Amino acid sequence: MKRHRKAEVRRKTKETEISLKIDLEGSGKHSIRTGIPFFDHMLGLLTYHGGLDLSLKAKGDIGVDAHHTVEDVGICLGDGIRKALGEIKGIQRYGMAVIPMDEALASVALDLSMRPWLTFHMKPRRSRIGTFDLELVEEFFKALCNHGRMTLHINLLYGRNSHHMVEAVFKGFGRALRQAVSVDERSS
After folding, report:
1. What is the DSSP letter of 183?
2. Dihedral through CA 153, CA 158, CA 159, CA 165, nearest 10?
3. Of 33, 54, 69, 113, whose CB count within 10 A is highest?
C-alpha cells in the first residue's frame, strides 16, 4: 500500500514569512514564489527531479539581501521533508545522483540519517547569476541539512557555466532525495 507523506510548515521571523506544503508522493508539480527568480527556477528543478509536489510562498527582506529568505526556505524545506517522512523506517534512506548539465557535472549523495552534516564543494566562476549571490547556494543546503537532519555531500566535479553548475547541483539533490525517500517494501 502506498504511503501518503505530506507536511505543512509555516515560519515567521522579523525578516521572513514563509508557508510551505510538501507532498513526497507527488509528480513534480510546484508553485514557488520567493521573489528571487533564479532561486525559484532552481527550486522548481529540485521539485520536478525530486518527484515531489511543493507549494511555497516566501516574503523576505530581499530589498536588503536575499540571505534571510534563501536560508529560511532551506529551514522550512528541511522541516517539511522531515515531517513528511515521520519515522525513518521503510524507506531506501540513501540516495545518490551524478547529473550532467551540458559541460557541468555534479555528484550528490545523501543519507536521511538524522545526523546533520554538509560537505559542499562548488566553486562557480561567477559570484552572481543576475541578482542571486551564489554563496547562498551553500547557505540553503546547510539550513536544509540541519533542519531535515540529513547528511549531504555535494561535489561539483567540473563545469564552466555557473548557471549549469548550480542547476546540476539542484537537479542532483532532487534525484538523490527521490531515491532516498522511496519506499523500501523489504523493510516496511
Report:
1. B
2. 0
3. 69
Flag whether the pTM goes above 0.90. Answer: yes
Give the Å distances, CA to CA, from 74 to 125, 139, 141.
Answer: 24, 8, 6
* Pair type for strands 30-33 and 53-60: parallel
CA distance 170 to 74: 12
| Summary count for the chain: helices (H), strands (E) | 4, 10
* Domain range list for the chain: 6-187
Cβ atoms of 35 and 58 closer than 8 Å: yes
The pLDDT of residue 188 is: 54
83-109 burial string, b = 16+ CB within 10 Å, else e?
bbbeebebbebebebebebeebbbbbb
Residue with grid cell 533542519, as numbered in its chain:
147
C-alpha cell at 143: 539550513
CATH T-level topology, domain 6-187: Ribosomal Protein S5; domain 2 (3.30.230)
Which candidate, 116, 103, 96, places its Cα nearest to that of 176? 96
User: Which residue, 79, 75, 50, 45, is CA-closest to 60?
Assistant: 75
What angle in degrees, to the nearest 10, is found between the helix axes of 37-50 and 162-181? 40
C-alpha cell at 38: 533564479
Give the pLDDT confidence of 99-130 residue by residue, as tens digits. 999 999 999 999 999 999 999 999 999 999 99
